[in-house]
Specification:
Layout (H helix, E strand, L loop, with lengths): L6 H8 L1 H8 L6 E6 L8 E10 L4 H4 L15 E5 L5 E5 L11 E3 L10 E3 L1 H7 L2 E2 L6 E4 L5 E7 L3 E5 H11 L2 E11 L12 E6 L3 E10 L2 E12 L11 H5 L5 E6 L5 E5 L21 E5 L4 H4 L5 E4 L2 E4 L3 E4 L7 E5 H7 L2 H8 L2 E2 L7 H7 L10 H20 L14 H4 L8 H17 L3 H8 L8 H11 L5 H20 L6 H9 L4 H28 L7 H6 L2
Antiparallel strand pairs: 1-10, 2-11, 3-4, 5-6, 7-8, 8-9, 9-10, 11-14, 12-13, 13-14, 15-16, 17-21, 17-22, 18-19, 19-20
Helix pairs in contact: 11-18, 13-16, 13-18, 14-15, 15-16
Organism: Citricoccus nitrophenolicus
Protein name: ApeA N-terminal domain-containing protein
């Protein structure tokens, strides 16, 4: 007695699900360009391939169901024409019809396995980088994050559909997708509810066939199809000149009217006034736009990607924005710089921190930008960084070693992360106290200090070693500066290193003395900056002394 197939088995053979999957090809977020994962599987094996082709080939390619191009095709070669005298022409993709592969599969040779090669042109157009760990191709986005665009393995290549659409738009070529599935249920005898089926179809975009029957006495099915995706208008490639045409620009608050309603205007450079008479009725390119200080939080939190410096913020080699961050209350940027120097994704981010102007830009930025004067920053965190860097340079020059050791790679970001707290949150407060303690206490070059002054008491800590050094150097502010360092160390222990006990609120209130957390840290920056500047002067003065005129212990300290 013949058996019957289940609905699942019938569905596998009749090709309905294959047709549904094929009809959606290229419409999802990812498009399969090559797939041979299942090519030797039983009972079903599937192969997928693709090429780019000029629209002029549509009528030829739609003429019959068979594949026009096969896996492995598309490699360089020559075509020879025969006439009165044979002539050979080099063809980079092995054909003179104009089609091009995105994926080339090479054959194995000797001990070498075949390779799956992806279009170098595609890589270069989108400036993709190879992930050495996976072999995938990634795009570095405007905000510095990375997005996988092409997933490549020995048996499969899938690509982000949006990038494929942009590439088709740029080249004005069709993407042809081919699929071929064979199902052969060997070992299964006659089946009562399996009927032979044969269907061919052809539409304006696809052609294919679906056959179900018996092969060598066993149920079998073949589904073969191909379709093309036409290119969008070239403007949709969003590359180079076309990228500028598709840019979108945010409106930013630049003032308020007499009733307190905000006045906004686009940051698009081409619509702003300048000093040469352009757009005379529009706001000037140099109109200041103001933002809450915590707009910079994102950049301080990721110093591997972003650099916040005095007067600018940048994202590696992707973008660089000039700004006024020398104001105690907010950050300001020129309206035109927002449109010219920030990518669209970052402009959207900054818009969320935009505020109505309640003051003016800092005097530092005004004098630098409008008057062309170089003046020192006023904000204590900027001054601290300058003083810290100068101290290190002076000690290296004067003594051959630095007062603070070079931090481990994992700690390199601490100086970059130091800033006046951007808000009154506990997180910002703790983070900045920890940063100060790391820079001023943990990173003390204890080994070099001990080499200079000799060993001290057992279990002597870094601050104690520094204290002995300063005393031996004849420094008259030793007590003040050591007390300041011990305060910072105590704050780190009480505020950041341990869980808060019942006495925490009283302790922190006694230290703040009615100051806000931002004001308290700002004052610490000021006091430590002055300390670092004194130590820089000490370095030069100590180095200038003739060691022979000093007591032995002091002479030892400056070697």
């Amino acid at each position: 007695m013949a058996q019957e197939f289940s609905d699942e088995e019938i569905a596998r053979l009749d090709g309905q699900r294959l047709w549904e999957d094929f009809s959606r090809a290229g419409q999802g977020p990812w498009t399969v360009l090559y797939n041979s994962e299942d090519i030797h599987k039983r009972p079903s094996s599937t192969a997928v391939y693709s090429v780019l082709a000029p629209p002029a080939l549509r009528s030829k390619f739609l003429r019959e169901t068979n594949w026009d191009v096969h896996i492995g095709h598309g490699q360089p070669g020559t075509l020879t024409s025969f006439g009165d005298s044979p002539a050979s022409t080099y063809v980079p993709f092995g054909n003179d019809e104009g089609w091009e592969p995105l994926v080339i599969v090479t054959d194995a040779a000797g001990s070498r396995e075949g390779e799956v090669l992806f279009s170098q042109e595609f890589r270069l157009v989108f400036e993709l980088f190879e992930d050495q760990g996976t072999g995938n191709l990634v795009d570095v986005l405007d905000d510095g994050t990375e997005s996988v665009v092409v997933q490549i393995s020995r048996d499969k290549v899938v690509v982000r559909s949006s990038y494929l659409a942009r590439f088709r738009a740029l080249k004005q070529m069709d993407l042809w997708l081919y699929t071929d599935t064979h199902t052969h249920l060997q070992g299964v005898g006659p089946v009562d509810n399996l009927e032979d089926f044969h269907e061919d179809w052809k539409t304006e975009e696809s052609i294919g066939s679906n056959r179900v029957g018996t092969l060598l006495g066993y149920p079998s099915a073949t589904f073969t199809a191909k379709t093309f995706l036409s290119p969008p208008p070239i403007e949709r490639c969003n590359l180079w000149d076309y990228e500028d045409r598709l840019q979108t620009y945010e409106d930013f608050i630049i003032g308020e009217d007499e009733f307190g309603r905000p006045i906004s205007f686009t940051c698009e450079e081409g619509k702003l006034a300048n000093y040469f008479g352009k757009n005379p009725d529009a706001p000037h390119y140099l109109t200041p736009v103001f933002f809450r200080s915590d707009v910079l939080q994102k950049y301080y939190n990721n110093t591997e990607l972003y650099v916040v410096s005095e007067g600018s913020v940048s994202c590696k080699a992707l973008w660089h924005l000039r700004l006024d961050n020398d104001h105690s209350e907010y950050v300001a940027v020129f309206l035109g710089d927002l449109g010219r120097d920030l990518p669209a994704s970052e402009r959207q981010y900054w818009k969320g921190f935009n505020i109505v102007p309640t003051g003016s830009m800092s005097e530092t930025y005004f004098r630098r930008s409008y008057l062309g004067q170089w003046v020192d920053a006023e904000q204590p965190d900027h001054r601290f960084k300058h003083a810290y860097t100068r101290l290190q340079s002076s000690w290296r020059h004067d003594h051959g070693w630095t007062l603070y050791r070079e931090p481990h790679d994992a700690d390199q970001s601490h100086l970059a992360r130091l800033h006046v707290p951007l808000n009154e949150t506990q997180t910002e407060f703790e983070d900045q106290l920890l940063t100060l303690a790391k820079l001023l206490v943990d990173f003390l070059n204890e080994k070099a200090i001990v080499r200079a002054i000799g060993p001290g008491p057992e279990n002597e800590r870094g601050i104690g070693k520094l204290q002995r050094f300063l005393v031996q150097a004849g420094y008259d502010r030793t007590e003040d500066d050591i007390s300041l360092l011990r305060l910072i160390q105590e704050l780190r222990s009480k505020v950041t290193a341990h869980s808060k006990g019942s006495g925490y609120d009283a302790y922190i209130a006694s230290k703040l003395e009615r100051n806000t957390k931002r004001e308290f840290v700002r004052e610490l920056h000021q006091r430590t900056t002055e300390m670092l500047m004194r130590w820089t002067e000490l370095s030069s003065s100590v180095a200038a002394l003739d060691s022979e005129q000093r007591p032995p212990e002091q002479a030892h300290a400056i070697k």
